[in-house]
Amino acid sequence: MNLKQLPLLMTPGPTQVRENVRHARSVEMTNPDLDPSFFKFYKETCGCLSDFLHTRNPVLILGGEGMLGLDAACVSLIEPGDRVLVIENGLFGEGFSDLVRLYGAVPVLFRGDRKREIDVAALESFLKKDSDFKLATIVHCDTPSGVLNELDKICPLLKSFGILTVVDAVSSMVGEEIFVDLWKIDICIGASQKGFSAPPGLTFLSISPDAYGVMESRKTPIASFYGNLWIWKNYEQEFWFPYSPPASDIYGFSVAVSNVLEEDRIVFRHQSIAKAVRSAILKTGLSLHLKSGYCATVTVMDVPGELDAEQLVRQILDEENVLIGGCFGYLKGKVIRIGHMGENARSDFVAKALFSIQKVLERNGIHLKEDMRTVFLEELEKECDEFKKK
Ligand SMILES: *Cc1c(COP(=O)(O)O)cnc(C)c1O
Predict the structure, then answer these.
(1) Which is the most buried residue in 126, 252, 267, 313, by most CB within 10 A?
(2) Which numbered atom of ligand 1 lies nearest the CA of 169?
């Protein structure tokens, strides 16, 4: 691979990785199982993630990327015959039903409009008729469409019906605030390669006492070794890891977490960029895929005319050396996605991505009303002026 020609990475994960994170991954190795200083370091990194999520619940970092977190949460909580409420308005939301079924539970789907956030009032009426669920699954930002769900309302509502909540917040984190304790989230799942801007390879979960209680009172054993969260229950007191932690990945990730925690206005950076991207799309005559429920980490845009989104993404890569996201499932070929999360969410990178998208659209005969990059930068400036006035 010719590293000089690597494209500008603007996908909704994996994201660009800052130099200090890359360097941290190359420091000298210890034995992470036997060296007490690694144990302390692991616990401190988990503690930083608890702070980040605004929770007193312990956080575990597991070696394996985002999907492992979803899998581990499901296999650890679910027993055959359980009823699980799968709240879905997108591909990741719906995907939980496969996991749930795999572990012998009965998924019951609450389906939302795929172009909007989940309708909380409709969910509440649904729950008034049927709330006999051991747990519910929900995605914070469903990345293929970029739709953001109101966890602040949904999770406390589920909890008021005695339903445990498993939240996939892999792609919303860092760009959107998450309050695990306030919102009563039992298991909240993140990963290294989205907003935190570390390479893929790690997932992490916060686990509530109620979630551990459910694991403890299981009648059947957890049907996984690697995904078994219960074996971690006393690891701190026992000073013991169930398996060798991927030390280099965690060194890098820990620096990425510090990068996030050290930046004062990181959520504002994401929110202002996302807003300016949406304005740039609308003011130049293009269209956003969603009607509402926009997430600050990714913008999804319908492809104009008869163009094929996959081909457009390919052309933007080949001709402009910028890598943006296409999509899959029902959105394949229909939309393009700009990932402005973590290190991607910098005005110069986003401006370059918009400029390249416009150039390639024009080469395909689609002419925009204005210059997207200029509109984006003007809007961003307005956002910042507004912010300063506050
Ligand atoms: C990226 C992502 C994951 C992890 O999925 P991978 O494709 O395995 O990286 C899980 N949930 C959501 C919503 C994501 O965006």
Answers:
(1) 252
(2) 13
